[in-house]
Structures are given as structure tokens and as C-alpha cells.
Here is the input.
Amino acid sequence: MRISDSISCSQFPCLDVNHDGYVIADLKLDPHSISMLKISEAAPKDSGDYYYAGGEASYETTTLLAFQDAGFDFDSFDELTNKGIYLTSAVKCAKTRYGIKPGTIMECSRILEKEIGLFPNLKVIMLMGDVAIKAINFIAKRTGADRAIPAGSTYKIRNGEFYFEDIRLFPSYVQVGPSFGIEKSKRKMIAEDISRAMALLD
Here is the structure.
């Protein structure tokens, strides 16, 4: 299965994102092999920095650093994929400002919901930041459930035990972008969250 052939946005109704920055991974994989999904907030300004872009893509660099911080010696995205880990963003277009409007997150969560549904053997979803948390809550509410992640600061809720259907959810912090290398305390907590999530894959 190729991800970019399986999900897409055709209407582009959102007004507070850059549609020229729209990107979905052009990645071919066996959907049954994926057991962990890691969701960041939005696509980067430059699609060459996105997951699976190759080279020195910033999303790849910071993701590998985060796993290495957690004690996992992954040197490439191929190794992550072989371990059953898939990376994506809640919003498929690039941001135009710091925040993203709730309506945009809700609209894009419909694509994310289809993306999650591609993987029948998911055990874990990591939610990297408030946008990813809001997106999974929109999805949960559409299924008739309560919000999957309660309101509150990530610091207070990140050690809680949350589920979407039978999938364990880990709320964490934004892990891609320049702030990852600056905010040492959050980087340490991201590593802790990855360790806890990875423990459920074994």
C-alpha cells in the first residue's frame, strides 16, 4: 500500500494554512506491519523537511534524535518502519502562523481518521503536541465517544493512561522544528514518553 494513494485532501477548505505546503508521505509499506503511529502537528514549510523526504530532512533528523534520546539506536527511517513505526502529521498543510484554528484541525482530522484506519494492528499512538491531541479528540467525538485525552496541560496529563478504542494514546510535546534542540526539559520528557510507548510494542 502506498500512503499517498490511500488518503488525500481534494477540497482544501482551510484558510489559515498554506496549501502549497500540503504533503502526505509517498511511502509504500505493509499496513499490517505498523503497530505504532507518531503524530506531529503540521507539515513543514518546506516539503523537503517532511517525514520520508530523505537526505537531511529536519523532521527525520529530530525524530531520530528523539528515539536516540530514549535509548533506541535507530539511524534511519527504514529502521523505524521495520520496527513497525509510522510518522505523520495531524494537519497535512504547512502552518502560516504559530497557531492553527480548531476548524482546520477538525477538517484535517477527517483525513487523519482515514489514515489511522489504514493500520489494523495499531497498539500505540503518540500525540506530539496540542494539535495532535485536539485532532484525536475530534476523531473520538465523531465516533460517539468522549474526548480521548482530557483537558489540561501536557505536563499534568502525560503520565495518564488513555485509549482511543483499543489503541493506547501517549500525549507528549511537539518534537519537530527548531525548538526541539532548545527546550531540554521537554526533550527529556519526549524521550521518557517514547520509552513508555515502545515498551508496549515488545
